[in-house]
Amino acid sequence: MNFEAWQRRKRETLRVLRDHLEAGRVDRDIIDLLNVINSLPYAFTTSSCSGRIQVYEASMPGEKFELKTLGKWHSPITSKDLLGAMIGRNTWLAMLPPILHISVCSMVPANHLLKVLRGAGFKRAGIISMARDGIVIETIGTERIEMPLRLEGRDVIKLDAVPSLVNIVNSLLVKSKERLGRLKEALGDEITRGLDNICGE
């Protein structure tokens, strides 16, 4: 691992992040957490999503490049929101959990950060790549739903079930946001722990 290469990548990545922040392309409710992570001497974020409820049209669920978004929310929704988005031929509802990609400078902080993530409730956390300019950790929340609302132009759920479905996805979304809050608290303590030399400079 090359610490200077990692530092260069951190500076460039945070410059791009500032541009995205100014353009309003970052989920507002994750900005404070990103600031905490990016203040750590051994880590920085490369991408993030705070979790969302989404309704989309696609022939099959999860078709990233062929789906059409019909509604997307980063906060709890109403039955009216969901009903208003239930259009199209094949329509799907998803409650997608938070996801973070974090680059660290060596294996020592990677192992340390994985313990912090898991302690905050992010059980799905692991190393996904190792390169000269850093190790990337991916962590994903466990709260997730993906289900059809309409297939072949026909509703597959009854209208009287919509309020209950809305309550479920809202509950999962709130739970995922609370998990982000616990992570922010846990990582906030890291800044004052004297870990400046953890990268092995």
Structural overview:
The chain has helices at about 5-20, 30-40, 80-85, 105-120, 160-190, and strands spanning about 45-50, 50-55, 70-75, 90-95, 100-105, 125-130, 135-140, 145-150, 155. The protein is α+β, with helices and mostly antiparallel strands. It has a single domain, classed as SSo0622-like fold (2-Layer Sandwich), CATH 3.30.1960.10. Strand 6 (about 125-130) and strand 7 (about 135-140) form a beta hairpin. Helix 2 runs parallel beside helix 5 (about 160-190). About 25% of the residues are buried.
**Alpha carbon gap, first and last residue:** 11 Å
Tell me the β content. Answer: 25-35%
Largest sheet: 5 strands, antiparallel
Helical region count? 5
Taking strands numbered 1, 2, ... along the chain, how are they ordered across the largest sheet? 3-2-4-8-9
The overall number of domains is: 1
CATH superfamily: tRNA wybutosine-synthesizing-like
- Which segments are poorly predicted (pLDDT under 50) over 5 or more consecutive residues? none
Helix content: 25-40%
Mean pLDDT equals 92
